[in-house]
């Protein structure tokens, strides 16, 4: 018989489940997340639920309001600007390092993702578009050889997922730009020049940011 998970491990598991439900659109922005209902649904006590909600607040997915409980965070212009600028800073660093470390194996991984993007010739599910997009960028972080940068990326990856989903829902142009824009970034990385890689990142993520700024979002 497998040992029961520790309270900490159970809290981590519940966090992963709730994070996936939020980023996957199961819960809507502003929705009240009631501890009792979540505990019943996941068949756990309220302790791991509280741990998970506290962690998700740190990640920006949830707002804990005094005497009112937990609510799914609502996307704001401030959120978009802050996550974009933070992502830009760490991904420039990651790309500048990864471009000299990826060698053949890393580019083979990128090419496999690009092939999936290229093979899409009909309407793509928004979730698949987000998955392929993040899968490509995960490779850059995997090869940057910088543990702290990777941890920062992991801490904001869920929020980037939410932003990409909103971007794809409002601007469903992945078939036109998904492959071409990522191929252009791949080619910049392949030059092995940190400055070219960083310039490529700047250009690449600016497009998504400009689209998000056009959404009718609250200021904060």
UniProtKB/TrEMBL annotation:
Ranges in a coiled coil: none
Q: Which residues form the HTH gntR-type domain?
A: 8-75
- Keywords per UniProt: DNA-binding, Transcription, Transcription regulation
InterPro entries on file = GntR_C, TF_FadR/GntR_C, Tscrpt_reg_HTH_GntR, WH-like_DNA-bd_sf, WH_DNA-bd_sf
Q: Please verify whether the record's keywords include Nucleus.
A: no
Its domain of life reads Bacteria
Query: Does Cell membrane count among this protein's keywords?
Result: no
The protein, known as: GntR family transcriptional regulator
Q: Where does this protein come from, organism-wise? A: Kribbella speibonae
């Amino acid at each position: 018989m497998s040992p029961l998970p520790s309270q900490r491990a159970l809290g981590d598991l519940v966090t992963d489940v709730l994070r996936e439900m939020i980023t996957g659109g199961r819960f809507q922005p502003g929705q009240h997340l009631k501890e009792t209902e979540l505990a019943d649904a996941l068949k756990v006590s309220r302790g791991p639920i509280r741990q998970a909600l506290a962690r998700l607040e740190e990640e920006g997915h949830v707002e804990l309001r005094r005497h009112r409980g937990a609510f799914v965070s609502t996307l704001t212009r401030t959120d978009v600007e802050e996550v974009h600028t933070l992502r830009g800073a760490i991904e420039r660093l990651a790309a500048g390092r990864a471009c000299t470390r990826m060698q053949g194996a890393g580019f083979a991984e990128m090419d496999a993702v690009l092939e999936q993007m290229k093979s899409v010739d009909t309407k793509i599910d928004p979730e698949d578009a987000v998955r392929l997009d993040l899968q490509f960028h995960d490779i850059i972080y995997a090869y940057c050889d910088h543990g702290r940068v990777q941890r920062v990326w992991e801490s904001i990856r869920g929020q980037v997922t939410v932003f990409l989903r909103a971007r794809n829902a409002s601007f469903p142009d992945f078939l036109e730009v998904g492959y071409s824009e990522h191929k252009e970034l791949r080619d910049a990385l392949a030059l092995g020049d940190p400055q070219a890689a960083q310039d490529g990142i700047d250009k690449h993520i600016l497009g998504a940011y400009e689209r998000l700024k056009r959404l009718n979002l609250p200021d904060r």
